Amino acid sequence: MGSFVYTINCVDIATQWTEQFAIWGKGETGVLKGLININKRLPFDLRGFDCDNGSEFLNWPIQKHYLNRKRPVNFTRSRPYYKNDNAYIEQNNWTHIRQLLGYARFGKPELVGMLNDLYENEWRLLLNFFIPYVKLLDKTRQGSKTTKKYDPLTPIRRTKTLDIPRIHTISESAHRIHNPFTPEKLATLGAALRMHPGTCVLDLGCGSGEMLCTWARDFGITGTGIDMSPLFTEQAKVRAEELGVVDQVTFIHGDAAGYVAEEKVGVAACVGATWIGGGVAGTIELLARSLDPGGVILIGEPYWRQLPPTEEAARACLAGAIADFLLLPELLASFGHLGYDVVEMVLADQDSWDRYEAAKWLTMRRWLEENPDDDMAKEVRANLSSEPVRYATYTREYLGWGVFALMKQ
Asked: ∠ at Cα 291 (288, 294), nearest 5°?
């Protein structure tokens, strides 16, 4: 029969990110070359490689490639001794390869380069950037009826929402509030909204769930929180148990971008994560899709207390540029331009900023003592050394933050 063209097809289970690479024959050298090229294209670090049971993958060179690293990649095979040994990739072989190329064998070596040009420059972009895939987000059962909720997202969106950067998780692992607010300010905000018991609240980017949990305890609200951090989502569930509000609040680890509640809510909030909607305007539009008529939208957003003197100073405040944020009067006016009245606001002060920022420093120091050999130790040490001075010089001086309550005009 001779040799012909094969395609290595890979898919990441968590994000649905997919890559293809064409090779001539199934020799270990060509397969290894293909896997190396695929690895270079991935937008994330490779943690594990789970292959089917063919000898093209189960050989010493490929095992050494994954295991003989500073941070070894977990190397496993799936469902040995079963014909459909890797069912997850088999369905993608149909949608990603067969529907594109058909079932005919390609017997000309010169087609390898043409296919790889197609895979790298057109096909992977279409599959990863423009075609959404659904994943089960939540499943509830009431009597004999099961309701499933899915979140259709493109792979590129999933790569940005599975978890937050690890330095953020480390530095804020002891925080209950992941914004420059104190418990007192959260309580002030809750009281200012004049919510009735039973008011339903949606919180996109809920962090460790302190707002929903304390409002459930203090004001009798119910609510749902969505957050992309597994650690913070788990902390939110623990906090709900501590405060005895498990029956009132639900926390979901998932992508808040694009999330719309099945039933309308009285308060829809995104407090400090407006990137999920591509900015303030997009986030307000997203929240409005879950809101009851006459409901309240909560937006948490930074603003300039005073304009930084230079772009370098703005970047030192962790902004991309001066234009990224507005002065407070301009921010308030921008809500009106979007068709919303500002009906309340609670602003951070320097003390609440200090509690948010300075609390990270002790957390990082304790983490370094417990994890001196971790791959992140060098970065954490650099942050601990530089952050106090950076914060006191720039963020504390120039940057404000607040939560703004909005109602449709």
From this structure: 105
Domain ranges in the chain are: 5-129, 164-408
- Cβ contacts of 120-128, under 8 Å, gap ≥ 24: 120/41, 123/20, 123/96, 124/18, 124/19, 124/20, 124/41, 127/18, 127/96, 127/155, 128/17, 128/18, 128/154, 128/155, 128/156
With a pLDDT cut of 90, the percent of the chain lying above it is: 62
Q: Which of 305, 310, 399 is nearest to 354 (CA)?
A: 399
Full DSSP string of 129-178: HT--B--EEEEEEETTEEEEEE--B-HHHHHTTS---HHHHHHTTT-S-S
pLDDT for 158 beyond 90: no
Q: How far is CA 218 from CA 194, 206, 214, 226, 247, in A?
A: 12, 18, 6, 21, 14
Tokens of 398: 């120039």
The third-level CATH classification (topology) of the domain covering 5-129 is Nucleotidyltransferase; domain 5 (3.30.420)
CB atoms within 10 A of CB 16: 22
Which of 347, 356, 349, 401 lies closest to 189 in space, CA to CA?
347
Strands (E), 43-132: 48-51, 74-77
Tell me the pLDDT tens digit for each residue of 196-227.
999 999 999 999 999 999 999 999 999 999 99
pLDDT digits (tens, 9 = 90+) for 292-311: 999 999 999 999 999 999 99
Q: Please, which pLDDT band fits residue 110 given cuts at 50, 70 and 90? A: very high
Return the CATH fold of 164-408.
Rossmann fold (3.40.50)
**Phi and psi angles of residue 206, each rounded to the nearest 5 degrees, phi first:** -80, -5
Phi–psi pair at 83, nearest 5 degrees:
-60, -50
